[in-house]
Amino acid sequence: MFKQLREDIGSVFDRDPAARNAFEVLTNYPGLHALLFHRINHKLWKLGLKWLARTGSTVSRWLTGVEIHPGARIGRRFFIDHGMGVVIGETAEIGDDVTLYHGVTLGGTSWNKGKRHPTLGRGVVVGAGAKILGPFLVGDDARIGSNAVVTKEVPAGATVVGIPGRIVRRQGDEEKEAQIKQMAKKLGFDAYGVTSELPDPVAHSIKALLNHMQAVDNKIDTICKAMEEMGVDNCSEQLPKLKSEDFEGVEEDQVIPSKNELKS
Length: 264
Fold this sequence. Notes:
Elements (H helix, E strand, L loop, with lengths): L1 H14 L6 H7 L1 H17 L3 H15 L2 E2 L4 E2 L4 E2 L6 E2 L4 E2 L4 E2 L4 E3 L11 E2 L4 E2 L4 E3 L3 E2 L4 E2 L4 E2 L8 E3 L4 E4 L3 H15 L13 H29 L29 H5 L1
Parallel strand pairs: 1-4, 2-5, 3-6, 4-7, 5-8, 6-9, 7-10, 8-11, 9-12, 10-13, 12-14
Antiparallel strand pairs: 14-15
């Protein structure tokens, strides 16, 4: 019990730079208080003392602003930051090292009995105000953006944003991003800020074009190598650089700003 309490306090220090000492965490963090209440209520629930467990969870909600059904299963080093307005349903399952921010709901979409709330894998982070609704899995190390509404399964390592929730990054996208930046550099284009996480449709269009150009460039390289092996040398020319005069006549607010302009 005390070992688990030390782990819970340690998880606060790991994820909240405002935490100064163990006494402050133990006395002033409602998310930790709600978790401690839940551990007691969950044991009562498993013993069949359902009314007592529900009463304990109601008292916890009054004191902390966090509502956790005593039937919910929660792993180790769980951290609720700020806590107010968090709701966790009866059949929700939460893995180790999960972080929830205030206003998060792990809810259901059905009145049928049985599994109706989400399962969160290890290391999941859910942003403030997000709603995860339904009996599906959110994979290990996934990220749910603030105020997102998620109603279907999320792969491990993915990032989800928006209403309805959409995946904007998956595991392995780092390599694709590196290829896109490499192509942009080859063209002389500043790709600063062009990432898969931006909601800007223009940025997404540019990203898609760069991605397509990378694929075309790879095919052309393969063709050139085959031609060189046949003794044909027509692939030595370098691609032209994009120059500022190429954009003359374009409205100022339509030109993509450079990295230095963004910094200033």
